[in-house]
Amino acid sequence: MINKLFIKILSLIAPTFVVNKLYNTLNNPRPRTPTKHRTNVFSFANKEIIKFKGINIQNYLWDGKGLEVMLIHGWEGSALNFEKIINVLVDNGFKVRAFDAPSHGLSEDSKSTMYDFRELVYYMIKKYSTKNIITHSFGAVPTTYLAANKKIFIKKMVLIACPNNFYDWIIDISSKFGIEKKIVDLTIDKIEKKYEMDINDMSVAEFAKDLKKVESLIIHGNIDKIIPIEKPLEVYKNWEGSKFLELKNLGHSKILRSDEAINSLLNFLKK
Questions:
Q1: How many domains does the chain have?
Q2: 67 occurs within a structural domain
Q3: Residue 154 in contact with residue 214, Cβ under 8 Å?
Q4: Alpha-carbon distance 72 to 39, whole Å?
Q5: How confident is the model at residue 1 (pLDDT cuts 50, 70, 90)?
Q6: pLDDT per residue as tens digits for the range 17-66
Q7: What is the CATH number of the domain that holds 72?
Q8: For 187, which of 12, 15, 22, 155 could close a Cys bridge (C-beta 3.0–4.6 Å)?
Q9: CA 46, 50, 51 angle in degrees (round to 5)?
């Protein structure tokens, strides 16, 4: 509460400072200490460093004989977030690919924007021609954008804890810290001018209207405090033929370790 009150007061007396802080947060992921492995699945991954825009990207492969799947983590996440999912996919014979985005996980630290993230997703999917994708959180935004704009071909997609659009995602994140909408709007205006784009173009709910040929499963926890469940329901309503799975008593991260979520995506991919 004290932190929120402090931010609100700071927004009143120094709005430009708060705008710049939020802008930097949205353009550069916060450094995080990698979470310890719960299993040994990463010890037998084929690991390689690939270059993307001169940046060292940590790439992973579990080379099964079955269907190929790529995992795309969220903002400030990493491939490690999918550890339990990877274990199950590997045990079921899938060929699994994953990577850490710039300044995420074990990839090289660099000034990394959400647009660099999108370009990397495009590069990785095109490089390996992977047609089955699992995303978590923000990972759905660049992936659905690329598919809707016919830049990549996706056959099946699982969206775990996905946002409805970039604007609401920023609003939801900012509100947790007590940042008012007017500050967010000033920040978005700065982003749009910097990248010469309209933030409303980053809408998973809108992209979904053009993805009826992509089979999709949307999985969301009913107590997700980062992205409330009504947000992915907008995506579901716009995505013709999509399936929606609401899971009880699961939030934004724990859902990635849910047996029910993992069994559901496994059955979906196997069909």
A1: 1
A2: yes
A3: yes
A4: 20
A5: very low
A6: 888 888 877 777 765 555 566 668 898 999 999 999 999 999 999 999 99
A7: 3.40.50.1820
A8: 22
A9: 175
